[in-house]
Amino acid sequence: MTRTKRLGSFAWLGALLIAGLPLAGLARPVIAPPPSLTTVWSEANYDAAIPTTNSILGFEIGREMARHAEVTRYFEVLSAAAPERMKVFEYGESWEGRKLIYGVISSPKNIARLTDIKAAMKRLADPRKLAKGEAETLIQDNPAVVWLAYSVHGNEPGTTDAALMTAYHLLASRGDARVARMLDETLVVIVPLQNPDGRERFINSNQAARGLEPDPSPLSAERDEPWPGGRMNHYIFDMNRDWFTQTQPEMRAHVAIMLEWMPVAVADVHEMGTNQTYFFPPEADPLNPNLTSTQLKNVERIARNHAAWFDQFGLRYFNREIFDGFFPGYGSGWPNYQGAMSRAPRVAWWRSAQMGLCCTLLIQ
User: Tell me: the pLDDT tens digits for 2-49?
Assistant: First the structure.
């Protein structure tokens, strides 16, 4: 597989990723329900043998926020429904004892070779130890590992829901040739919930303050998070500052498993304020001088593909204005220094369940 073909798959995954952010989920919305995946990908022809969240959890994405136990259960059900295309692994646990999981989705041929692919990626990570021409052989013979990580901040709920939608689409879509290409050329690792303790705290406070109908007002009780809120983990630490210091068990476990797989493209998916639209890199200056010109060019290439998809759907977006690319402790920073292309796409945070469009645009 050529590098150009690989980048095409990364860009397609990006489209899938960002069009999958279901901005999340209060029950019984008083406005139009969230668009379903079939609204976005009308050609998908979803396989009824792959369970939906509604059939397993009792709600559609965007109607409710999935709790940690529900996220874990749904991933395990998906893996059981398509074991030749998805495997689920545990990689650690949070301060409060919640297990941390990730799913690997790819073609049956690639899933059967997970151990070999992992070994190949680790060898490729340091070409100084390879014989002449060996790197090209590894690139040709193995799929690229793409890493999609969600909800490092527990009060950014739509990102984890997007992970569920992304996994479902990759497994259930039968009429979209792009999905077959993605699963053939890439190994998609999905970390659906990096901060389960913060998410549980956020959902608890949100549900305790709900009325009979969702209230979109910024002053509503359901939007007022009691201290310490859901952003941080159990010990009130912002884990999106901990990638290189690695003081928290959730982040130490995440870093360890990422170093086992050595992905070549990483997305750390976030939400932001309701008065904003969508953000994806390139970031604002200053950029870290240790980023290579090849990394910056590839980020630009993927961004142009994002923009093309967003234009197609009529979605507003911006980049370069805020969110620096300098600090190495971000999820959009540290993986770059392991050789990946890392970025942190963000979407406006509308918790009134009026929107559920996004789950399907970094893999495209």
Answer: 555 555 555 556 555 544 544 333 333 333 444 455 556 667 789 999
Instruction: Give the whole-angstrom CA distance, residue 363 versus residue 194.
Output: 20
**Closest alpha carbon to 294 in 19, 6, 89, 1:** 6
Do residues 146 and 13 lie in contact, with contact meaning Cβ atoms separated by under 8 Å?
yes
Q: Is 347 helix (H, G, I), strand (E, B) or coil?
A: strand
Closest to 104 measured CA to CA, from 89, 116, 124, 120: 89
What burial class does residue 292 get, using C-beta atoms within 10 Å of its C-beta: 0-12 exposed, 13-18 middle, 19+ buried? exposed
The number of beta carbons lying within 10 Å of the beta carbon of residue 199 is 28
Number of Cα atoms under 13 Å in the Cβ half of residue 314: 1
Burial per residue of 160-174, b for 16 or more beta-carbon CB atoms within 10 angstroms, e otherwise: bbbbbbbbbbbbbbe
| CATH code for the structural domain at 3-211+218-363 | 3.40.630.10
Q: Report pLDDT digits (tens) over 265-304.
A: 999 988 887 777 888 888 888 888 988 898 888 888 888 8
Report d(CA 354, CA 35) in Å as an integer.
Answer: 9
Residue 305: Cβ-neighbour burial (10 angstroms; 0-12, 13-18, 19+): buried
Residue 62 — pLDDT band, cuts 50, 70, 90? confident
What gap in Å lies between CA 212 and CA 247, rounded to an integer? 41
Name the residue among 165, 164, 120 with its Cα closest to residue 145. 120
Specify the amino acid at residue 5. Answer: K
Kindly tell me if the per-residue pLDDT of 345 is higher than 70. Answer: no
Rounded Cα gap, residues 171 and 174, in angstroms: 8
